[in-house]
Every structure is written in structure tokens, then in C-alpha cells.
Amino acid sequence: MLNAFTHLLIRDLRLALRNRHELANPLIFFVLVVSLFPLAVTPTPEALRSMAPGVIWVSALLAVLLSLDRLFKQDYDDGSLDQLMLSPNPLMILVLAKVLAHWLLTGLPLVIIAPLLGLFMSLPVEAVDVLVYSLLLGTPVLSLVGAIGVSLTVAVNRGGVLLSLIILPLYIPILIFGANAVDVASDGLPVRGQLLFLGAVLALSLSLAPLATAVALRITASR
Amino acid sequence: MWNWIQRFSSPKYFYSMSAVLIPWFAVGALLVGLYGLYLGLFVAPTDYQQGESYRIIFVHVPAAWMSLFIYMVMAVSSGIGLIWQIRLADMVAAASAPIGASFAFLALVTGMLWGKPMWGAYWVWDARLTSELILLFLYLGYMALQSAIEDQRSADKASGLLAIVGVVNIPIIHYSVEWWNTLHQGATVTKFDKPSIDIDMLIPLLLMAVAFKLFYAAVVLVRTRNEALYRDRNRRWVRELIAQL
Asked: What's the Rg (C-alpha) of chain A?
């Protein structure tokens, strides 16, 4: 079982690394969207600072949302998803491997680049590390919950808008607490509560979302 | 037991059974609703702070309750449909979604109309209004998924799973929105603070809640009948019905 997990993880990572160009796209998108806001609203540091947490978090959310397609689409199209479902290993574990690969390839790079964007948006330095922590706890949830949505819509033609319609409302708690943690930190207040909440949601979705994704995949495959 | 459930939940049996029930629910909703409105609009005392405009709660609050209640109904019947493969439960879930979305919309509109004289703005990012808005989005997502998948069986299963995921999320969303608002700012305006509501206001409110429930029961039965007829349009019992016309 563990063997299947690592094999699938390595396979997904390897497949993605062979297509490096695509790998960078969500990251570029993230940076691009964030840098639109100073252009559209105002470049004054005070204004930027006050909207920075929200802007960075919303952009991260959208970047993950747009990359979710990668999670199952290719495997669905070439039939390897069906093969995965036929394997004797619990589908939940395989889903977990795929989600972990997705997070390593999209969530983690966003976390790494986020400090730079924090500086772009003139966040105070104390808030930058909270930004990193909050994204570190929050982006895995985005991948986990997003996996449910993709597995329901992967067989739908032009399911992209539909996916955002059904997934974005579910992302709201993460957005609220992630952005709020950064906001509170830039005022120099303690952020423990917010980070603990993000951790709790991560634990919850880590245990339940793969289950729901497995059920959703079987529904999609039964068509 | 199982046979009994199978027979009871067959669309054909449901179709004839619901024809008996619908008039009762509909007339009940009308009578209770009219009486509740009369008590609410004419008998209940004027609020000492909000004047007459508080009377919108007799529509607003039951609508908000119903929007949550119907989502629960949807999730439970989707669960029944997913686990025991009872087609009727899937039909109820699918038939409920537009009704629930309408109630959420009604709650939002009445909330906005009440907000204008009370808060001075149609829309305030108040915690409750916001979570009602998110609930409306959840309904719309469910309906979008339901209509995007062509095969009826998998459309039911997929949107049913979404409803269940949504129901797990509703408390999380509700409380995070509530905390979001209190974290951002202290309560500048005490919003829907309901300190010991007057009994003369409570009775019409509860009557209206009952009327809304009965209304929902009548409408969901009508809509489920339509679903049953449409989905079983090629089955024998529907053809026999048509032949009788």
C-alpha cells in the first residue's frame, strides 16, 4: 500500500517534471495577478499593505484553482485513472498520493514565492513569515478540497467554470483565516488562533477529502 | 421492511400518494400563512426601536430558516439516494434545490430591504447576510453540476456528493464568517440581536415558519411528481397514465 503510494507519487512528479514549462504556469499566474493590483488600485505603500493579505490569498486561491485540472484530467483522458481504480490498493491512498504530488508541484512553489510578493505589496517583515505559515497550512487544503471538485467535473465538457462555481464557496473559510492571520500579524498581534484553525481544517480535510474524492471518482467512472 | 420501502419509494406509488397529500399541504400553508400574516402585520405590536419596518422578519426569518432546512433535506435525501440507491430520494434532492435557492434569495432580498432603513445601506457585510449569500452560491453550484452532467444517474450521484460535502462545510463556513466579522471589528451595530422577543411577535413568526414548511412540502411534492414523470417518461406506468388522458 505504501509502495503504491510512493510509486504513484514519484510517477506524478516525474511526469510533471518532464513538462517543466507547464509547471511554472500557476506560479507566473500568481505573481502576475498580484502585480495587477498596485496597477489597478494604487501603488501607495499604506494602501498596498492594507490589501496585501487579501490580494495574495485570493491570487493563491485562483492559481491553485486553475491548476486543479492537472490533478485528474490527463489520467482521465488516457485511461490510467480507470487502471488506478481497478488496482487492489484503496483508492483513498492513491488519491492522497496524487493530491500530495499536486501540492508539491503547485502549492509549495506558491508558498516559496510568497515572501517576494509580500515585499511587492509592502507587507511588514513580521507579517511575511505568517504569510508563509498560513499558505503552508492552507494550500494543502485547497488541493485536497479541490480534488473533490475536479473528480466530479473531470468528465464534463468545459468543466472549468463549473469547477470554480462549486469549489470556491468551499474555499471561503480558508481564505478568511489565511488572509486574516496575515492581516493580524501586520498589526503586530498574535496569530495563533488563526493558524490553529487552519491546522484544524487541514487535519479535517486530510482525513475526509480523499474519501469523498474516491467516491466522486467512482461516480465519474461509472458513466 | 425492505420490500415495503421499495414499494413505498417507487415513483409510481409516490405519484398517486402525493396527489392526495398536496392539497392538504397547500391549503394548510395558505390558511396558516394568512393567519400568521394577519397577526404579524396587524396584531403584533410596533417595535419600540425599529418601528413598523421590523415586520419584514415575518417573511425574512422563516425564509432564512427554510433555506438552511432545505439544504439539509437535500443532503439527507442525496445520502439516501447514494447509499440505498433509492431513485425517489434523488428526485426529491433535485426538486428541492431550486426551492431552497429561491428561499435563500428571498431571505437576501428581504434582508436588504430591511437593511436600508435600519443600517442605512442595502448591503452590509454582516456575518449572517454573508453566510446566506454563500449558501445561495452552494445551491447554485449544486444546480450547475446537476444540469451539466447529461446522464441522469451520475448527475444525481455527483451533485448528491457535492450536497453532502457542502453540508459538512456549512457549519465551518458559518462560523468562520461569524468570526471573520467579529475579528475584523467589534460589533458596531448590534445586528440581529434577538433579546427575548415579545410573545405577540413570536407567535406570528412561528406560524409563518410553519406556513413556509407546509408550502415547501406542497411545492416539493409537485416538483418531485414532475421529476418522476419526466424521468420515467419511457416507463410503463407513465405511459399508462398518458393513455388514460
From this structure: 18
B163-194: burial string, b at 16+ Cβ within 10 Å, e else = bbbbbebbebbbebbebbbebeeeeeeebeee
Residue A158: predicted pLDDT: 77
Collapsing DSSP to helix, strand or coil, B47 comes out as strand
Q: Where are the domains of chain A?
A: 2-221
Report CA torsion sign: B88, B89, B92, B97. negative
Average per-residue pLDDT for chain A: 91
ipTM: 0.90
H-type alpha helices, chain B: 2-8, 11-38, 57-84, 87-119, 127-148, 152-184, 199-231, 236-244
Q: Do A172 and B177 touch (CB under 8 A)?
A: yes
State the Cα–Cα distance between residues A175 and B2, nearest whole angstrom. Answer: 45
- Greater confidence (A146 vs B47) lies with A146
Q: Is B164 on the interface with A (CB under 8 A)?
A: yes
Q: Which of residues 139-168 of A touch B (CB under 8 A)?
A: 148, 152-153, 155-156, 159, 162, 165-166, 168
Out of B141, B151, B183, closest to residue A165 by CB: B141
Q: Where are the domains of chain B?
A: 55-187+198-244
